[in-house]
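user: can you give me the structure for this one chain? tokens are fine.
assistant: on it. calling the predictor now.
[tool input]
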Amino acid sequence: MSEGTKGPSDDVSRRLVLRATVVTLGAAAANAKPAAATVKITKAAVAYQDHPQGDKRCAKCMHFQPPTSCKLVDGPIDPRGFCRIFTPLRQASLPVRAVSADT
């Protein structure tokens, strides 16, 4: 065979190399983690306390991540704790009663 002529084995090996490259890149992309770490607020900055304030407690906050973490505050969080950035979980919608024009 001359240098200008391709044989069938050349196509197969290129195809296998291309397929292996695509699979490897896909696997690497699937396992990639975000480059930037999430910055969290200190407990002191949000006046965190390990006891509730009335009915407000971390377990009822939208930022709480069970069992002992918060999306925004650094360090372990007690589900019974409380801080200034407490945001209540949205309540389930109550059924709406139909109102007729007759009443």
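assistant: here you go. Residues 60 and 91 are 10 Å apart (CA to CA). The beta strands are 64-65, 69-70.
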